[in-house]
Amino acid sequence: AAPPNQPLWAIPGGMLEIGETLQAGAEREILEETGIRIKAGKPIYTFDFLQRDEVGRLRFHYVIVDMEATYLGGEIRAADDALDVRWVTPEECDILPVSPTTLQILRDLAFITPAQQR
User: In sequence order, what DSSP letters do the residues of 46-75 get, joined into one string?
Assistant: First the structure.
């Protein structure tokens, strides 16, 4: 529901609070945005995300760290800054409006195959 990926589907995330570990931040953000509890593990994907406006000025610069996680429980629901939330199959990534960065991450992690291109 919020920039920089509005209105595209993307992996849930957010900002760390002062003194918060990557794992604690991932667990809190997933709970806030989806209503589910996870146990975050090690980082599995890290990258910079820069978005510029129409005249080339930098609007957003995020350092993204995606974490391995284990589902612990809870009923999935959209909350906080997510318009909708759901579990998806690799095939659904072909029909949903997924952010290009999310598609690349899912390909790199072998969740979707290179044949599933946009």
Answer: EEEEEEE-TTS-EEEEEEEEEEEEEEEE--
Quote the pLDDT of residue 107: 92
What is the pTM assigned to this prediction?
A: 0.82
As to burial, measured by CB atoms within 10 angstroms (0-12 exposed, 13-18 middle, 19+ buried), residue 63 is exposed
Which token pair is 91?
A: 């095939």
Cβ contacts of 46-51, under 8 Å, gap ≥ 24: 47/101, 49/4, 49/101, 51/3, 51/4
Instruction: Measure the CA dihedral 93/96/97/101, to 10°.
Output: -20
